[in-house]
Amino acid sequence: LLKTCSLHGISTFSFQTWLSQARQSKDYALPNSSWSQGMMDLYSRFLEMCKDGTWKRIPSYSNSIDHIPGKAFWCVCKERKETRLFPRNMDTEGVGFEYAMFLNPSEKRMVCLFQPGPYLEGHPGFAHGGSTATIIDSTIGGCAIFVAGRVMTANLSINYRNPIPLGSVVLVDSKVDQVEGRKVFLSCQVRSIDGQTLHAEATALFIRLDSTKSLQQQMSSQ
Ligand SMILES: CCCCCCCC/C=C\CCCCCCCC(=O)SCCNC(=O)CCNC(=O)[C@H](O)C(C)(C)COP(=O)(O)OP(=O)(O)OC[C@H]1O[C@@H](n2cnc3c(N)ncnc32)[C@H](O)[C@@H]1OP(=O)(O)O
């Protein structure tokens, strides 16, 4: 199982190895009792589409390091710190960000099923725009990481079209539009489950930080 390769002096693990390592941490992208019927139905729909390999469910951990393949080699700090990935910062289920991501590698597309909880309030009854930006950045970021490896957000531009009611379920749908050298251009739409309401749309530029292999390259070399 442990298949390593060396690229530019940096060891990277295979996708399978990363998955098995990551399995040791709690996966938050699994259904819990706070998920509404709408969230459960959408989750089941995507899980079904995972069966033929078109889509892949992306596990989610409270520590960002756990998302990185070969984390022991990538981590600049030797000790594991008591930090949390921002959207996984609350202990109580359902009050903050409830979400699950699915990746379509061939379409370079990442979708996120998002149910904003009551502690994400902005205007009464609606999700704060910053929480919408966070889930967009995380979804687009996950997509960019898959395609390009280590990246950082350089630009994120969001048009808010319709407020998102707290407790509702929306689909955050992102894709890579173009890669030019270190620059990864992506776009994203946030829609209601029935697709009728466009809540937000965004474009983003991510910059690749180094030349290590992307997860997509690792998966295709299996
Ligand atoms: C199957 C598995 C899938 C895996 C999925 C994993 C699980 C997914 C789950 C969960 C994922 C969670 C994901 C979280 C994501 C969160 C991301 C964030 O929030 S990041 C924090 C906010 N961002 C910052 O703090 C950056 C601050 N800025 C910087 O550090 C630098 O500016 C940086 C690195 C972005 C670029 O700096 P330089 O020095 O490396 O590069 P220079 O030379 O400045 O730029 C390179 C090129 O890009 C252009 N550029 C840079 N910034 C630009 C900008 N804002 N607009 C336009 N162009 C820009 C430049 O003009 C240059 O272009 P020319 O090569 O000359 O053509």
From TrEMBL:
A GO cellular component annotation in the UniProt record: mitochondrial inner membrane
Keyword Nucleotide-binding recorded: no
Domain Thioesterase residue range list: 125-197
CDD domains reported for this sequence: PaaI_thioesterase
Classification via Pfam families: 4HBT
UniProt catalytic activity: hexadecanoyl-CoA + H2O = hexadecanoate + CoA + H(+); octanoyl-CoA + H2O = octanoate + CoA + H(+); decanoyl-CoA + H2O = decanoate + CoA + H(+); (9Z)-octadecenoyl-CoA + H2O = (9Z)-octadecenoate + CoA + H(+)
Entry's EC annotation: 3.1.2.2
Signal peptide range in chain numbering: none
SUPFAM superfamilies: Thioesterase/thiol ester dehydrase-isomerase
Domain of life from the UniProt record: Eukaryota
GO biological process, one term: apoptotic process
Protein localization: Cell projection, Ruffle membrane; Cytoplasm; Mitochondrion inner membrane; Mitochondrion intermembrane space
GO molecular-function terms, A-Z: hydrolase activity
Protein family (similarity comment): Belongs to the THEM4/THEM5 thioesterase family.
Record-linked PANTHER family: ACYL-COENZYME A THIOESTERASE THEM4
Entry protein name: Acyl-coenzyme A thioesterase THEM4
Gene field: THEM4
